[in-house]
Write a structure and sequence with these properties.
By secondary structure, the protein is mostly helical. The protein is built from 9 helices and no strands. Helix 7 packs across helix 8.
Length: 268
């Protein structure tokens, strides 16, 4: 039997993790959907004399579904290794007959791909009840929410890559921080962003003397590029999007790999 990866062990580990946390997961999902239901009731009741108001619920679903998918995934990723945050629990986790890779991949898949599928399907079932309830109660026209439309937006590929980048950051934070991993991950992200911003500001001051001089130099450089015909606006956009995608993929892979090795460190 493979000591690093075995599909049967992964399925058994996933089943164990689900049985331990299914109650909390169920209560969290039901709490979020109940909140949406209450908000929807007040909107539907207050606007029952305006038939066109029901179209608002389509926008309501377009906002609520991505929040459930993305925010839920981030919170789950940030709490992935809570079972290892005390010496006693860590000992129990180490004794589980599964490799570090299997433990990591279970949390990676369950908090990203599997959660996305679950939340997408469950929200559609909720939207049927949601729309049907207000249509029956207040005389609105019943409509079916199509969640696939949320993917018909500009730069959807970059948005998806951005989601995985964010997910990898919080999964890394869960593996690296034992106490308050979500809070510490947010703070670390904030500090790193500020550090890079301050560094960029210092470099600009050293090279150009001021932000105004830097801005004018960049405008002049843009004008030269357009005059020489080295790039067109379409080429610039294409290259910028390609650079963004490449950087996102590389950073995401780096964070996921680092998270795996951080988990291995905690098991030593």
């Amino acid at each position: 039997m493979n000591q690093v990866y075995d599909i049967k062990r992964i399925l058994l580990l996933a089943s164990l993790k689900f049985s331990l946390h299914k109650k909390l997961l169920f209560l969290s999902v039901m709490g979020y959907l109940a909140l949406l239901f209450i908000i929807g009731f007040f909107i539907a009741y207050g606007s029952r004399e305006h038939a066109d108001t029901f179209q608002f619920f389509t926008t309501f679903h377009y906002i609520s579904l991505p929040i459930m998918m993305v925010v839920g995934s981030i919170l789950l990723a940030g709490r992935s290794f809570q079972d290892m945050n005390t010496p006693e629990k860590s000992t129990i986790q180490i004794l589980i007959p599964a490799s570090s890779f299997e433990k990591y991949i279970v949390h990676f898949l369950s908090t990203s791909v599997l959660w996305m599928i679950f939340s997408f399907v469950s929200y559609h079932l909720f939207s049927l009840l949601f729309n049907g309830m207000w249509a029956a109660s207040f005389g609105y026209e019943f409509t079916i929410f199509n969640g696939f439309d949320i993917f018909n937006v500009y730069m959807i590929a970059e948005i998806i890559l951005g989601y995985f980048l964010l997910h990898s950051i919080f999964l890394l934070g869960a593996a690296a921080f034992k106490k308050y991993p979500i809070v510490k991950t947010v703070l670390a992200h904030f500090i790193i962003n500020w550090a890079f911003s301050i560094l960029a500001f210092i470099v600009i001051l050293i090279l150009f003397g001021s932000m105004e001089n830097w801005g004018s130099k960049m405008e002049t450089f843009d004008d030269i590029i357009l005059e020489k015909g080295w790039f067109t606006m379409d080429n610039i956009e294409y290259r910028a999007r390609l650079l963004l995608k490449t950087a996102s993929v590389l950073l995401t892979l780096a964070f996921y790999i680092t998270g795996y090795y951080k988990l291995k460190e905690r098991e030593v």
